[in-house]
Amino acid sequence: MPEPDKTPRTQTRRIVVAITGASGAIYSKTLIRALLDAEIEVHLVISKFGRRLLHDELNIGASDLNLLAGRDHPNIIHHPIDDIGAPVASGTFQHDGMVIVPCSSNTLGQIANGIGSNLLTRAAAVTLKEKRSLIIAHRESPLSLIDIENMRTLALAGAIIAPANPGWYLKPERLSDLADFVAGRLLDALNVNHNLTIRWGD
User: Fold this and answer.
1) Is residue 201 part of a domain?
2) Domain count, the chain
3) Could you tell me the strand order of the sheet in which 76-79 lies?
4) Are 9 and 165 in contact (CB under 8 A)?
C-alpha cells in the first residue's frame, strides 16, 4: 500500500512523466526540459525497457538521469519502477497530469486492462481514477486491432491519446524541430505554457 502523501501542497505544479521502451527518447527529453523551464516539478518513472531506450538512443545511463534535464535540477524527482510505495502510486498524491512518452503497445495494453503491476501502470491507473489528465504518446506503427481497441478503452476512460506524430507544415530542418513539435503538443494537452514553435501561422 503506498504511503500517504503528507507533503503540504504548494503552488508549484507537478507533472508525472513516464518513459517506456518504445522508440522516441528525444521526445521525453524535450518535454522534460520544457517542463523544468516552466518551473514545473517533474516526477519521473522509467520502465526497464525505458532505461534501455535512454541508453540506446541518448547514451544516458541509469546513473546519468540528470542529463535528461540537461543539468542537475531540484525539480526533477525520480521514482524507481518497482517502488509501488512511491507517492505517485496513490490517488492522494496531487498532481496536474501524467504523460507517458514514448508509450509502448505493451504499456498501453496493461493500462487499458487495469494491470497495475509496476509503478508506471499503477500511477496511470490512479490518474484515471482521480479524473486527472492522462496523456498517452503512443509511438508504434502499424497499429494492430488490439492497439486500437486499447486506445478506444482508454479514451472512453478519459485518457488523451496523443500519438507522437510530428507536423511538417513548419518545414522542419532538424530532428530537434520534430521533437519540439511533439513535445509542444503534449505541453498544450497539459495546459503548460511554452515557447516551442508549433503554431500554424506563427
Assistant:
1) no
2) 1
3) 76-79, 41-46, 14-19, 98-103, 134-138, 160-161
4) no
